[in-house]
Amino acid sequence: VYAVLFLALAALAWVAWRGGTVVEATIREAARYESLTTWPMYQAALETERFRGALGRHVAGEPGVTWENLLDSFEIFWSRMPLIGTEQGIEIEVDGMSLSRLRDLGVRTAERVETLIGDRDGAVGDLQLLRQVDVEIGVLADQLRYLAVGFHTTRRALRGSTLQAVVELGRRQSMVTLGFFAVVAGLLLVAFA
After folding, report:
1. Is 122 left (phi over 0), alpha (psi -120 to 50) or beta?
2. Which of 46, 68, 114, 120 matches a 20 to 30 Å C-alpha distance to 156?
3. CB contact set of 70 (below 8 Å; sequence gap of 6+)
4. Which tens digits make up the pLDDT trace of 66-99?
5. CA dihedral defined by 180, 182, 187, 190, rounded to 10 degrees?
6. Nearest to residue 93, comparing CAs of 154, 161, 29, 31?
7. What stretch of H or E contains 94?
C-alpha cells in the first residue's frame, strides 16, 4: 500500500512540476505576443499622411508650408519607414504581408519619393509632382492603414488564445494539487491507522 501511495505521490509531483514548466512557457509566449506592437506602423501611417498633406498645401501655395517645411516633413516620414516591425519578436503575416515586407515597401517608397523631390527649390503649382508623389505613396498609405488593423487584430487573437491556454493549465494544475493532497492525506491515514 505504501509503495503504491509513494508512486502516486511521485507521479503527481512530476505532473505538478511539468505543469508548472508548461505554464511558465505559456506565460513567456504571452509576453512575446504582448511585445507585438503596431505603434511604429501607426506612426509611419501618421507621418505618411502628414507628408502628403504638407505637399498638397505647398503645391497649393499655402504660405505656411515652405519648401524647407516640406523637406522637414519628408525627413520625418522617411525616418519612420525603417522602424516598421523593429519591435517585433516574431514575424507575423496578415494577408500575405509581413512587417518586414511592409518596412521594405516603406523604404523603397521613400527612396522613390526622394528622387522626385530631390534637387528642387520648391513645387508651388506643380500638380504633376503632386500626382507622382501621390501615386508612389498611395499604395504604402493604404497598406499601412489596412495592416495596422490586421496586425492589431492578430495580436489580440494571439493574446486571447494564450490567455485561454493559461487558464486551462491553471485548472489542470488545481486538479493535480488536489490529487497531491489526496495522496498525502491517504499516506497520513495509512501511517496513523
Report:
1. left
2. 46
3. 51, 54, 55, 58, 117, 123
4. 999 999 999 999 999 988 877 666 677 777 888 8
5. -170
6. 154
7. strand 93-94
